[in-house]
Design a protein that fits this description.
32% of the residues lie in helices and 23% in strands. It is α/β, with parallel strands linked by helices. The relative contact order is 0.09.
Length: 364
């Protein structure tokens, strides 16, 4: 979604007329979560996706009507019929999409700037055709929904959803003539939380494609290695940070930033570097801790970690040898297996082939 917001800010700055289509609600095995958006420019350019290809053409047609003056629209797309080319979701889910023209007063530049700074921010939009939009987050409130009371209620709703890390529909205010309360409105809060952190310990060759994939998946990627000849921005152009330091020292200095969304990948398979940082990582809140190396290296690593005082519950958190068994070879295929395991751990996936499982492909 960040590239969609960035493009929206660029189009807004250049006075390009465009509509934003946003998934506001889902049921069943929907391909994308609420908050996913796509842009449709007046000249026909499209950025982003709301369904992975199932209903994009139909949404573009709605966007054209919106830009022609029809006003905001809410459309629901469900299971398609036997004709695979009919408008519907072949995955079996249902999505509700809000399509609105984005005007020049929308605070998109503020949202894009907060995203670039890795600050949590939410974009709040009226669902029922009301004016304006509002951005709220750690750096304050920008924009307006046309009523100061409504702006305050919207900012509070945005703060609540940001804390949960979810986007969704909310109803704020009260009906009736009471001028002390915000007017009743249904709003959509599009929440952008802090991106998950990927810490790659060891600036080895196998780390390079992992850094690329991690950045592609939306992680804030840090590479840390004590060897200045290897830990360079030139070798890791996709990393957000390349740090020349012993990984355990970096980890200790940034322990307050480690949370359940943090993935730690130890790539050097050298006990002098691996064991000190693994000792810290396995005792931290990091949601994923993996280490590269053979099974013999793993057994030696476990013995050293036990000697350092780690218990069996802490050792059980270690993903080693790192990655899923894909049968791959080389840095690129190994990086895919590691990234796949990180996703499976974070999302609760089994790592098994979908063809051997029953039930919805996408979790509700």
């Amino acid at each position: 979604m960040r590239h969609v917001i960035d493009q929206a800010a660029v189009w807004q700055a250049s006075a390009t007329r465009f509509a934003m289509a946003t998934v506001v609600r889902t049921w069943g095995s929907a391909p994308h979560a609420a908050g996913t958006s796509m842009l449709v420019a007046e000249d026909g350019r499209v950025v982003g996706s709301v369904s992975g290809g199932c209903v994009e053409a139909a949404v573009c047609a709605v966007a054209e009507d919106v830009l022609a003056g029809a006003g905001p629209a809410r459309e629901t797309y469900g299971v398609s019929d036997d004709d695979a080319f009919s408008v519907g979701l072949t995955c079996g889910g249902t999505i509700e999409v809000l399509v609105r023209e984005v005007t020049g007063d929308a605070p998109l530049a503020r949202v894009a700037a907060d995203l670039a700074a890795h600050a949590p921010v939410a974009l709040v939009t009226p669902v029922e055709g009301g004016p304006g939009s509002l951005a709220a987050g750690a750096s304050g409130v920008s924009g307006t929904l046309g009523d100061a009371r409504l702006d305050r209620a919207a900012a509070q709703a945005a703060e609540a959803l940001l804390a949960r890390g979810t986007s969704g529909l909310v109803r704020v205010g009260e009906p009736g003539p009471d001028t002390s309360c915000a007017p009743e409105r249904e709003l959509f809060v599009q929440a952008f939380g802090v991106p998950p952190h990927l810490l790659v310990c060891g600036a080895v060759e196998f780390a390079r494609p992992l850094v690329r994939i991690g950045a592609l998946l939306g992680h804030h990627v840090t590479v840390c290695d004590a060897r200045p000849a290897f830990a360079t921005a030139a070798r890791f152009p996709d990393a957000h940070e390349v740090v020349v330091d012993r990984p355990h020292r970096w980890f200790a200095a940034h322990a307050d930033q480690v949370d359940a969304a943090t993935a730690v990948c130890v790539m050097t398979h050298d006990a002098r570097f691996d064991v000190p940082v693994l000792e810290l990582a396995l005792r931290s809140r990091a949601g994923y801790v993996g280490a590269m190396g053979s099974r013999r290296t793993h057994e030696d690593r476990l013995a050293r970690l036990r000697a350092a005082g780690l218990g069996e519950a802490e050792l059980a958190r270690l993903r080693s040898p790192i990655g899923l068994d894909l049968g791959g070879r080389g840095p690129e295929e190994t990086a895919v297996s590691i990234a796949a395991e990180i996703i499976a751990v974070r999302r609760g996936g089994s790592g098994r082939p979908l063809s051997g499982l029953a039930g919805p492909v996408h979790a509700s």
